[in-house]
Design goal:
binds flavin mononucleotide; alpha+beta; 12 strands
């Protein structure tokens, strides 16, 4: 992609809004997590989601080795969790999980308490494209909570307007 098109792509995508999720995993490769804006529904049959993670990301490696992840969709009060798992809180860099309360999901991955929703997934398939890996998660358990979603647009966090 030319530099000009890449700049235009970044500036244009920046204006789109998304929800925010933290993908977490645990298993033989250890516990890890990453903040993403790329979680979305894939299919009802079987219930499944996709998320796109940079191939250099350490959490991706752990998810692939552990074979499971929880997609924790963040509620508006969980901005600190989003920042921690994006590496934006220096004092939490060594223990990002200290930003929230967790319990183990059925797959063994950490599930965030009081999230808007948590989808416990078995990693069913992956597809590399460009710099990223598309993760396909087959949902094995769903925990849904209350509240409004945390939103991300124009490089900052937002809440739904009344
Ligand atoms: C709101 C938000 C959304 C993000 N979405 C994604 C995403 O969808 N995929 C991705 O690979 N990184 C995404 N990132 C960046 C990662 O969270 C970040 O690079 C990573 O957590 C840094 O981890 P590290 O410090 O271990 O390298 C996002 C960051 C923020 C703040």
């Amino acid at each position: 992609m030319s530099g000009a098109l890449a700049d235009r792509f970044r500036d244009t995508m920046r204006r789109t809004a998304s929800g925010v999720a933290v993908l977490t995993t645990d298993g033989t490769a250890g516990r890890a997590g990453v903040t993403v804006s790329t979680l979305c529904s894939l299919s009802m049959e079987p219930p499944s989601v996709i998320a796109c993670v940079h191939r250099d990301n350490r959490t991706l490696d752990a998810i692939l080795k552990n074979g499971c992840f929880v997609a924790n969709v963040l509620a508006v009060h969980q901005e600190r969790v989003a920042k921690a798992f994006a590496g934006l809180i220096p004092e939490l860099r060594d223990d990002r999980f200290a930003s929230g309360d967790w319990r183990l999901a059925a797959t063994g991955a950490p599930l965030l308490q009081e999230s808007l929703a948590s989808f416990d997934c078995r990693t069913a398939s992956t597809h590399d494209f460009g710099t990223h890996c598309i993760l396909i998660g087959e949902v094995v358990e769903i925990i849904s909570g209350d509240g409004d979603p945390l939103l991300f647009a124009d490089r900052s966090f937002h809440r739904l307007a009344a």
